[in-house]
Amino acid sequence: MQGGGWSDQVNALGGFIRAQRQMAKLSLREMASMTRVSNAYLSQVERGLHQPSLKVLHSIADALQLNTEQLLQQAGWGGGVGAAAAANGGAEPAAEEASAGPCSVEEAVRAETRLTEEQKAALLGVYRSFLES
Amino acid sequence: MQGGGWSDQVNALGGFIRAQRQMAKLSLREMASMTRVSNAYLSQVERGLHQPSLKVLHSIADALQLNTEQLLQQAGWGGGVGAAAAANGGAEPAAEEASAGPCSVEEAVRAETRLTEEQKAALLGVYRSFLES
DNA sequence: CAGCTTTGATTGACATACTTAACGCTGCTG
DNA sequence: CAGCAGCGTTAAGTATGTCAATCAAAGCTG
Questions:
Q1: Which chain A residues in 18-47 sit with Cβ < 7 A of strand D?
Q2: CA separation, residue A111 to residues A41, A97, A104, B92, B93 (Å)
Q3: Between A83 and A54, whose confidence is greater?
Q4: Which of B103, B123, B133 sits opposite A126 (nearest CB)?
Q5: Distance of CA B95 to CAs A68, A120, B92, B110, Å?
Q6: A113 domain-assigned
Q7: Does residue B56 sit within a domain?
Q8: What percent of chain A has pLDDT over 90?
Q9: 20 to 30 A Cα–Cα from B66, which one of A23, B6, B100, B133?
Q10: CATH code where residue B56 lies
């Protein structure tokens, strides 16, 4: 059972979808009727409890009018499509307290030690997509 | 049971995969070991009996060294999103002015003047959901 | 010919995607 | 206060994806 390792990735996807849905001011039930996917399942997907199939992912992208590639990238296709070259530098010294440091959102997220790298990438993805509007 | 409407699509995907595999002169079992997906399931996918998940699709694309977009298009992404236009030139300004102030993610987000209140709320919602693991 | 290997296909059991019907909570309206 | 309406979440069930074991047929080797 190699399960579990990918939950970060799924959580990133779910957070991304949830953020986009909230920005579009849709409730779970509204989005459910648009996508013809049950609200319950959407809730679970958004919290990373399940990985949606292509059909569902497609419906979601359609309902939220999202850029397809962006959504797919969040869904785990970071290995081939966009290649945004996230230069990772080296391992950071894992500062225990973020008490002293730079203050932009980007820096603050990167300095947050409680987040995984995937989570940071997802959060920054949402952030940048907001800035592009 | 809705008998078959989408089977055309799946069959197209399966046929495409089978053709590519044979062209690469791989047996089902060879490809199975490369993709870490069972030969049995690959056989079924190739004959349109099942629609593979993202994970499997990704593995297949990787093993066959296929163009990702090409495979996804066969898998059913040819139809819906429409428009999108995706003018994604990619010029990321990255001008982080960072007004000197607090440093946590929460504070940094609240201090970000380019975000609307809704966007801040959405972003912080994702952030907090990540922390609640 | 028997025996070994490899091929694609099938079966049965299990894990995961997904649905429908509830639940508890918050905010309103009378 | 009761009562309704909306929200997100949970519970229990069904459908589908996925695997390990197995099969019959075809190609070799001796």
A1: 27-30, 39-40, 43-44, 46-47
A2: 33, 9, 10, 21, 21
A3: A54
A4: B123
A5: 27, 19, 9, 18
A6: yes
A7: yes
A8: 30
A9: B6
A10: 1.10.260.40
Taking CB atoms and an 8 Å cutoff, what residues of chain B touch A102? 98, 103
Chain B interface disruption, residue of A104, A123, A133, most B CBs within 10 A: A104
Domain count, chain B: 2
Over pLDDT 70: what percentage of chain B?
69
The whole domain housing B127 covers 99-133
Residue B84: inside a domain: no
> Which residue type does B17 have?
I
Q: What pLDDT was estimated at residue A132?
A: 65
* pLDDT at B118 > cutoff 70: no
Give residue-wise pLDDT tens across range B40-66: 999 999 999 999 999 999 999 999 998
Would you state the torsion angle of the CA atoms of residues A66, A72, A73, A79, taken in this order, to the nearest 10 degrees?
-160
Most confident segment among A32-41, A101-110, B4-13, B61-70: A32-41
Most confident of A1-5, A110-114, B30-34: B30-34
Task: Please check whether residue B108 lies inside any domain of the structure.
Answer: yes
Q: Tell me if residue A91 falls in helix, strand or coil.
A: coil
Q: Are residues B68 and B17 in the same domain?
A: yes
Closest Cβ opposite residue B108 in set A67, A76, A105? A105
Task: Specify the pLDDT at position A126.
Answer: 75
Residue A24, Cβ neighbours under 10 Å: how many? 15
